[in-house]
Amino acid sequence: MSRIRLIFVCLLAVAAAGCKAQTNPVAAGSPVDRETARKIEVLAREKLKVPTEYVVTVGQRSPGEIPGFDKVNVTFSLPGHADHTQTLSFLISKDGQTLARLSEWNIAKNPADLVPYANRPVRGNPDAKVVIVNFDDLECPYCAKMHAELFPDTLDHYKGLIKVVYRDLPLEELHPWAMHAAVDANCLASQNASAYWSYVDYLHVHGEDVTGPDRNLVKANATLDKLATQQGVKSALDAATLSACVAKQDETAVRSEVKQAEDLGIEQTPTLYVNGEQMQGALDVSTLWTIIDRALVSEGVTPPAAPKPPEPAKQGN
């Protein structure tokens, strides 16, 4: 265990209900007495699931920012492993009867900037204030469903108010040809974004055809290359450049995308970010549009009105 798992411990209000002996407050800057330090250690070990081999050291009190509470730092360390050390700041009441842990979250960055998408093909309005970043697997059936929800209905509904970017997350253990497909798609993208999207559109509709009845990976990869070449002809791409890129099958860029997904803690596809707000799995249209509307409102943009439901068919007399 390299890092102690953090949990939120509620701040408990202590009320003087009935007759109770009063405890004299302890001044900030004084050491925590041995009995209280032991209580803190035992509670921290239990609540934070600290492994027994870790040493828990309770520091002294320091002035706190919340009335009635001081700060106390608690350090968790693994003997012989300097990199396995973490110090957490707790709140301790003046009377020494309540310990609390408050989580601090950094909101300095715009959430939309937390998931970079530079140099990826963009669909929709490049200047839109709301961006949907989708970590996609071209062999994933749930990704195909999400793709169908996005295009064309969602893109048409928002009419220039959103842009969509796909990033690669081929789950190779589940989808054997997904990596090859991502490489071929990026070969197309390097010359023309529209060619990339046409290829992605096709694969998300015809994935079973690529897999084939015998599920032969060599045949599937050959089919992917053939489809990429055909798309290159339709899009008037440089045939020699495309052919060399497809033949090389350089996975470096895709592997980098996978690493970034792992760093974000993403474990499944599709995983979408709408201006930084994460959703996992295929979403129905109403849920997706609610999330997009929320992002538009936060940017000061009025979302388009929801389409009217179709009128029920009139029954004859």
SSE blueprint and pairings:
Elements: H1 34-47, E1 55-63, E2 69-78, E3 81-93, E4 99-100, E5 122-124, E6 130-136, H2 141-158, E7 162-168, H3 178-189, H4 193-205, H5 207-211, H6 217-234, H7 239-248, H8 252-263, E8 271-274, E9 277-280, H9 285-298
Parallel strand pairs: 6-7
Antiparallel strand pairs: 1-2, 2-3, 3-4, 5-7, 6-8, 8-9
Written description of the protein model:
- This protein has 317 residues and is of the alpha+beta class.
- It has two domains: 1-14 and 22-104, Nuclear Transport Factor 2, Chain: A, CATH 3.10.450; 111-298, 3-Layer(aba) Sandwich (Glutaredoxin).
- The chain has helices at 34-47, 141-158, 178-189, 193-205, 207-211, 217-234, 239-248, 252-263, 285-298; strands at residues 55-63, 69-78, 81-93, 99-100, 122-124, 130-136, 162-168, 271-274, 277-280.
- Strands 5-7-6-8-9 form a five-stranded mixed sheet.
- Residues 77-242 form the Thioredoxin domain.
- Keywords: Isomerase, Signal.
- Residues 1-21 form the signal peptide.
- One of its GO terms (molecular function) is isomerase activity.
Report, as a whole number of angstroms, the end-to-end distance: 74 Å
The fold-level CATH name of the largest domain is Glutaredoxin
Tally of separate domains: 2
SSE pattern, N- to C-terminal = HEEEEEEHEHHHHHHEEH
Keywords: Isomerase, Signal
Protein name: Protein-disulfide isomerase
Family: Belongs to the thioredoxin family. DsbA subfamily.
Signal peptide: 1-21
Give a brief rundown of this model.
This protein has helices at 34-47, 141-158, 178-189, 193-205, 207-211, 217-234, 239-248, 252-263, 285-298, and strands spanning 55-63, 69-78, 81-93, 99-100, 122-124, 130-136, 162-168, 271-274, 277-280.
